[in-house]
Design a protein that fits this description.
It is found in: Cytoplasm. This protein is α/β, with parallel strands linked by helices. The chain is built from 23 helices and 18 strands. Helix content is 37%, strand content 15%. Strand 4 and strand 5 form a beta hairpin. The radius of gyration is 39 Å and the shape is elongated. About 2% of the residues have low confidence.
């Protein structure tokens, strides 16, 4: 090159936008005029010079950075500049994406490590030196395979200042912390750190739990939480219409490798499409092929490392086991019913706008409402707030109209009484079966003998034992006695008196026409639901009827029997407590089946066996006046003399109510009672 001329290569012409024979004015530049002239960091984007070149070799980014420092030490670099270099026999091109500089005076003082980088801007430049940190990344359109080349700052995967509560989710702080640690923590670190650890990112998680607890809501908001690709949300049955779910992730992973963005795929109602393979007899095998595709993409021969699959289901037991092992949907997170602190958060979320706009009365105590909403799911709490506002709306409907609004509508506010009214309407699905229990105690409990008081007292002791004892989280009691002696009513009364948040009744009345499998599933579901509550009571009524037992044969359902035997002895999860109250008329039959031994205790419920008890019952229901009652008791005493009656309280109440309809109540009551086969005949 003749003196006074500058040679410019094709790459430099393209970067500087210079054409052939163009006159260019060149001036001497003194880099030391700017005291920040040495580079502390350079970000280079690497690609092959020739397009179409491909190699199966994976290049070590750290070694490539050392080669670049040796080759270009002392060279001035600026943003946008391109450099050409050879590495392992391949010609590469590096584009300067950004630079940071170190203060010259600081370098002279030997304190380069403590300097602060200057902000980058398009015309900024600096001199490469041995201490410069070079961060390599592959060009998006290049097929180069690069590892360990990036020592950049932490990837901003999670948006700063993100809170689930701000997204309309409350009471799930613990669950989200676990999800973040397991699924996202490894992804915010530089790839070379993860590579040195020799681990793979978590590629899948499954959220399971009762309906309405926030599973779908969590998944829906994860996209807003992450600086990643927009999540693909697929409801279970839609999978066949979106079979190319992994196409975008696969294409980007081939192009960019570990530098590719995170692709999130969300499956709602996963149990609809990922049942155990071979469990369906439709002959098509469509469901099996969906499971196979998920398995191959997540952890197959050529897996993708830039995906996160989130599945949601209410039935974890139905999901194919191969999907749940590590490497696939390995994080199994139960989204359970919120505790009191969680319910306070959820109530604050749903009343935030009311409070902000001064539409919430001062007498509304969120802590009080949270204490009254035991076993409410997040969705049910949201429904409670809506129901409370409906009471407030109703106060401002114009009198005599269902469509007009009163003039004082601007004074609308939601108060404590509105929430208490809503609590009467909105009942938790994992709560108390109030209507069923009330039907069992239509006539109340009449304490016609000391044994009734004793049974209720012992029942309260069992309740206290379950609530307070650390040694017996599971207590089961069998109430047995003659038909109509009041076993079901006493069991329901004891259960209701517990004031536990979860009380359910298992009764043969609700299973008429059920197959064995349906009965087993229904019984098992009640127990599974009970395990989700900290304190639960299950009343198993008329056990011999549940077992389809009949004396002719005899016949009974062994499958249902085995289900009960297992569940009666199965302890609840740690921290939860369960009281089981069973009733039967045929304890001897349960003894032959070894079922009575599954109960921790039993209490005998006798029938009415003296005249004083009969008098107490008829007095309790106000059947007679004092004169009529004395006359009836005198007739019965004369008729029975020294013999003892034996009649169930249920039958006695039926006779009493029938006699109430007759003109001569006393005569009808006495005659009907003496006509019973177990009672001596009237003289």
């Amino acid at each position: 090159m003749p003196p006074g001329q500058v040679g410019v290569s094709n790459v430099q012409r393209q970067w500087a936008l210079l054409s052939l024979n163009q006159d260019v004015n060149v001036a001497v530049y003194d880099p030391f005029s700017d005291m920040n002239c040495y580079l502390s960091k350079v970000d280079l984007q690497i690609s092959y010079i020739r397009k179409g070149v491909a190699s199966e070799e994976t290049f070590d980014g750290e070694d490539m950075s050392k080669t670049l420092l040796q080759s270009f030490n002392g060279l001035m670099l600026t943003v946008g500049q391109k450099i050409i270099f050879d590495y392992h026999g391949f010609n590469f091109q590096g584009a300067v994406m950004s630079v940071d500089t170190v203060d010259f005076k600081t370098m002279q003082a030997g304190q380069a490590a403590s300097c602060s980088p200057r902000p980058t801007w398009p015309r900024f430049r600096g001199i490469l030196m041995n201490e410069t940190q070079i961060n390599l990344s592959k060009s998006p359109d290049s097929s180069i395979k690069l590892k360990g080349g990036s020592k950049s700052h932490t990837n901003v995967l999670i948006q700063p200042n993100f809170k689930f509560e701000d997204m309309g989710i409350g009471g799930l702080d613990k669950e989200f912390s676990h999800i973040f640690r397991r699924a996202f923590a490894s992804r915010i670190f530089p790839p070379h750190i993860v590579e040195k650890l020799g681990i793979q990112h978590v590629k899948g998680m499954i959220l399971y739990g009762p309906p309405g607890t926030g599973k779908t809501l969590i998944a829906r908001q994860i996209g807003k939480m992450l600086n990643a690709k927009e999540p693909k949300i697929v409801n279970g049955p839609e999978i066949l219409n979106k079979y190319k779910l992994f196409a975008d992730a696969e294409a980007e992973y081939k192009a960019r490798g570990e530098e590719s963005s995170l692709h999130i795929i969300i499956f709602d109602e996963l149990d609809a499409i990922c049942k155990q393979r071979g469990s369906k007899n439709d002959g098509t095998g469509v469901g099996d092929s969906v499971v196979n595709q998920l398995l191959s993409k997540m952890d197959g021969v050529d897996p993708l490392n830039n995906i996160l699959v989130i599945g949601m289901t209410n039935r974890l037991d139905m999901i194919d086991e191969a999907l749940l092992r590590p490497g696939r949907l390995e994080i199994k997170m139960e989204i359970s019913l919120p505790d009191e602190a969680g319910r306070i958060q959820i109530l604050n979320v749903h009343t935030a706008k009311m409070r902000k706009n001064n539409l919430l009365e001062n007498d509304v105590d969120v802590k009080e409402i949270a204490s009254l909403t035991k076993n409410f799911s997040g969705a049910e709490i949201a429904g409670l707030v809506k129901a409370a506002t409906s009471w407030s709306f109703n106060r401002h409907v114009k009198v005599g109209s269902v469509a007009g609004v009163s003039d004082d509508v601007e004074k609308l506010k939601v108060g404590r009484e509105d929430f208490l009214g809503a609590l009467e309407e909105v009942r938790p699905s994992f709560g108390v079966a109030e209507a069923e229990l009330q039907r069992c105690v239509t006539n109340g409990v009449i304490k016609f003998g000391d044994h009734i008081e004793r049974i209720l007292s012992d029942g309260q002791l069992f309740i206290d034992q379950v609530r307070n004892s650390e040694r017996t989280p599971l207590v089961s009691v069998l109430l047995h006695g003659p038909s109509g002696s009041g076993k079901t009513a006493l069991a329901a009364t004891i259960a209701t008196a517990s004031d536990f948040p979860f009380i359910k009744l298992i009764s043969p009345e609700t299973m008429v026409g059920f197959s064995e499998n349906a009965k087993m599933a229904t019984i098992a579901k009640v127990f599974e639901d009970a395990y989700k509550s900290p304190l639960s009571v299950i009343v198993v009524d008329c056990i011999e009827r549940l077992l389809d037992w009949v004396p002719i044969g005899p016949r009974f359902s062994n499958a249902v029997l085995q289900t009960l035997l297992v569940l009666l002895k199965k302890p609840p999860p740690k921290g939860n407590r369960l009281l089981i109250i069973g009733t039967t008329t045929h304890r001897d039959v349960l003894q032959q089946m070894d079922l009575s031994e599954a109960f921790n205790a039993d209490m005998y419920i006798p029938s009415i066996q003296n005249l004083k008890a009969i008098e107490t019952v008829v007095s309790g229901i106000n059947l007679f006046s004092d004169t009529e009652r004395f006359s009836a008791m005198t007739y019965l005493n004369d008729a029975w003399k020294d013999q003892q009656p034996s009649i169930g309280v249920k039958k006695l109440l039926m006779i009493a109510e029938m006699a109430r309809q007759d003109l001569d109540k006393v005569d009808k009551f006495v005659a009907t009672l003496l006509d019973e086969g177990s009672i001596p005949t009237r003289k």
